[in-house]
């Protein structure tokens, strides 16, 4: 049996709840990707082109700093990586995470929460940040129900 890690970024708490349920269902370890500077409600105002999230997402090279935690990724075979969808893709903080740790030879399965959009080009945009890993599009888990999560985890 392979060892799994559920890693996630959650700006408002929605993705965190889903990640916790996935970790429990998958009997996986849980790892929160935390920005060095937490996002405020104003930072997340996607209607404001000058908000922090809008500025970050307009520059695909931007890498928000994260709290670096000691983590031995070599002990995991599969990483379930979750985040909210921002501007039809993963937030650039996910690139920061993938570039901070070594994911060589790992299988990374994505899951996301979204107000309405799908994964878009997420896999393509993340692959260069973990070029030696296999990244696959998982599932949007917007409902976050136990049944939805159980079915998805069992399908992996």
TrEMBL record:
Gene3D superfamilies found in the cross-reference section: 3.40.50.360
The family database entries (Pfam families) matched by this protein are listed as: Flavodoxin_4 (PF12682)
In what residue span(s) does the Flavodoxin-like domain sit? 4-156
Quote the SUPFAM superfamilies the UniProt record gives.
Answer: Flavoproteins
Q: Which InterPro entries match?
A: Flavodoxin/NO_synth, Flavoprotein-like_sf
Concerning PROSITE patterns, the annotation shows: FLAVODOXIN_LIKE
Task: Give the PANTHER family listed for this entry.
Answer: EXPORTED PROTEIN-RELATED (PTHR39201), FLAVODOXIN-LIKE DOMAIN-CONTAINING PROTEIN (PTHR39201:SF1)
Name-wise, this protein is NAD(P)H-dependent oxidoreductase
Organism for this UniProt entry: Blautia difficilis
């Amino acid at each position: 049996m392979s060892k799994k890690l559920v890693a996630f970024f959650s700006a408002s708490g929605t993705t965190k709840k889903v990640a916790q349920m996935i970790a429990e269902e998958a009997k996986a370890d849980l790892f929160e990707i935390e920005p060095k500077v937490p996002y405020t409600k104003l930072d997340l105002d996607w209607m404001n082109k000058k908000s922090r999230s809008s500025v970050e997402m307009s520059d695909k090279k931007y890498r928000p700093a994260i709290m670096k935690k000691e983590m031995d990724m070599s002990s995991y075979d599969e990483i379930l990586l979750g985040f909210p969808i921002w501007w039809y893709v993963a937030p650039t903080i996910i690139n920061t995470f993938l570039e901070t740790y070594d994911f060589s030879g790992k299988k990374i399965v994505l899951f996301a929460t979204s107000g309405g959009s799908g994964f878009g080009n997420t896999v393509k945009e993340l692959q260069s940040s973990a070029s030696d890993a296999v990244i696959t599009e998982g599932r949007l888990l917007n409902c976050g129900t136990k049944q939805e999560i159980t079915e998805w985890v069992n399908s992996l």
